[in-house]
Design a protein that fits this description.
This protein is of the alpha/beta class. It folds into four domains: 5-120, Response regulator (Rossmann fold); 156-213 and 225-307, 3-Layer(aba) Sandwich (Rossmann fold); 311-385, Helicase, Ruva Protein, domain 3; 417-471, Orthogonal Bundle (Arc Repressor Mutant, subunit A), CATH 1.10.10.60. Helices cover 44% and strands 12% of the residues. The longest helix has 20 residues, at 426-445. It is globular.
Length: 480
């Protein structure tokens, strides 16, 4: 059986009893106290192999005690428990040197497992104590079990440069998570640069990412710095990574492998020191099977995967989110509002296809348009029956034809240039945009058989081979 002495500090006698029984059954010697003073005396005397402590105790906050413990006994693992269960609680626990953070209520089997791992680890771990709480502006809101797990993962990542892949539906807050990783991580003093792959014309993505030299292409009248150069020493957030064209994927893979890149039209390799955080609302494994995303790039980006749950899977967070958004609206000058419990329950039963973004838009509308101080369930019913909650531009008509879809794309494409015009060569670029997914779909449908794909498309086999080569379409053969 495991051995070791565990010091437990919690002012809740029921918690102490439960921990005493569970840890004793697991084979550990347990000492219990209800205050921080006794815990500090035991630690000062050299007692205990591991500490389990609540954050809030009658005489002292554990976050004030933790730095003293780590200074006196840096190898002593400390597990912090809290019923506050916010993102900042997890971050502060990590910053103050805690081995692990556990939200209350916790799973006893998980706790026993964490204790065993902590006691088995080498005693020369170094932890960073920045001592900075990071202010009161909480970037992520929610106390559901799903969010608690995300907070714990983020807390472990703050002092690393590991590449992170954030997946989740549109509106779940992927950029907020990326910003939190930057703002509370060791690169916080560097720049945070975001780029949305879906919002940039495919032929300009490489120039946007890596920059270009004067004369590199028509319209390149001066050298331009890319996002990698702008993010040097900081974090580069690649949103909607699934929309990155294949040639740009190849160049990005080279950066991740070699730590350097060249500008478009340049010849000199440029070293880069950037942390990559990517995000997607698509199934990248499905794109890989369709030949639209490089598998080797996926594995390079997917070092630490984080899945953000849709709002319908964390409905218990809606009350906290509503209060948070009402507070933000009030700080922006909108009237203060309350919401009755029945109205909150109605919100919790809604499916939220637009996720947190949809909820935020609803709360702002409630604060701005209704004179009542208290939002009732009837007002909520009225709002939820209105189809305008989800932004129109994010919806795609079910029966929309290809021609209409292209028209919408072109309207958005031209509007992105304001009063100017896109670079010359638009006709061929648009044809290339259509050819790439068409050929990829044909190859996926025929499991990589180019003869069958050419027959399906109605083109000559040699023509298809040339298109595959020119467009850099990845062909994946399957015998299934």
């Amino acid at each position: 059986m495991p051995t070791g002495s565990i010091l437990v500090a919690d002012d809740d006698s029921a918690i102490r009893t439960v921990l005493n029984q569970a840890l004793s059954r697991a084979g550990y010697e347990v000492r219990l106290t209800s205050n921080a003073a006794t815990l500090w005396r035991w630690v000062s005397q050299g007692d205990g192999d591991l500490v389990i402590t609540d954050v809030v105790m009658p005489d002292e906050n554990a976050f004030d005690l933790l730095p003293r413990i780590k200074k006196l006994r840096p190898d002593l693992p400390v597990i912090v428990m809290s019923a506050q269960n916010t993102f900042m609680t997890a971050i502060r626990a990590s910053e103050k040197g805690a081995y692990e953070y556990l939200p209350k209520p916790f799973d006893l089997k998980e706790l026993i497992g964490i204790v065993g791992r902590a006691l088995a680890e080498p005693k020369n771990r170094k932890r960073t104590d920045d001592g900075d709480e990071g202010g009161e502006n909480i970037p992520l809101v929610g106390r559901s079990p799903a969010m608690q797990e995300i907070y714990r993962v983020l807390a472990r990542l703050m002092q690393t440069d590991l590449t992170v892949m954030i997946s989740g539906e549109s509106g779940t807050g992927k950029e907020l998570v990326a910003r939190a990783l930057h703002d509370y991580g060791k690169r916080r003093s560097g720049p945070f640069v975001a780029i949305n792959m879906a919002a940039i014309p495919r032929d300009l993505i490489e120039s946007e990412l890596f920059g270009h030299e004067k004369g590199a292409f028509t319209g390149a009248q001066a050298r331009s710095a890319g996002r990698f150069e702008q993010a040097e020493g900081g974090t580069l957030f690649l949103d909607e990574i699934g929309d990155m064209p294949m040639d740009a994927q190849t160049r990005l893979l080279r950066v991740l492998q070699q730590g350097e890149y060249t500008t478009v039209g340049g010849r000199t390799a440029i070293k880069t020191d950037v942390r990559i955080v990517a995000a997607t609302n698509k199934d990248l494994r499905q794109l890989i099977n369709q030949g639209l995303f490089r598998e080797d790039l996926f594995f390079r980006l997917n070092v630490v995967p984080i899945r953000l749950p849709p709002l319908r899977e964390r409905a218990e967070d809606i009350p906290d989110l509503v209060r948070h958004f009402f507070n933000l609206a009030e700080k922006e000058g909108l009237p203060s509002k309350q919401i009755e419990p029945a109205a909150v329950e109605r919100l919790k039963r809604y499916r939220w296809p637009g996720n947190i973004r949809e909820l935020e838009n609803l709360v702002r509308r409630l604060a701005a348009l209704y004179p009542q101080d208290t939002i009732t369930v009837n007002l909520i019913e009225q709002e939820l029956s209105t189809p305008s909650i989800v932004p129109v531009e994010e919806e795609t008509p079910r029966d929309e034809g290809l021609s209409t879809s292209v028209e919408r794309f072109l309207a958005k494409y031209f509007s992105g240039y304001g009063d100017g015009l896109p670079p010359p060569g638009l006709y061929h670029r648009i044809l290339k945009e259509v050819e790439y997914p068409l050929i990829g779909a044909a190859l996926a449908a025929t499991r990589g058989n180019q003869i069958k794909a050419a027959e399906l498309l109605g083109v000559n086999r040699n023509t298809l081979r040339k298109k595959i080569r020119d467009l850099d379409v990845q062909v994946i053969r399957s015998s299934r």
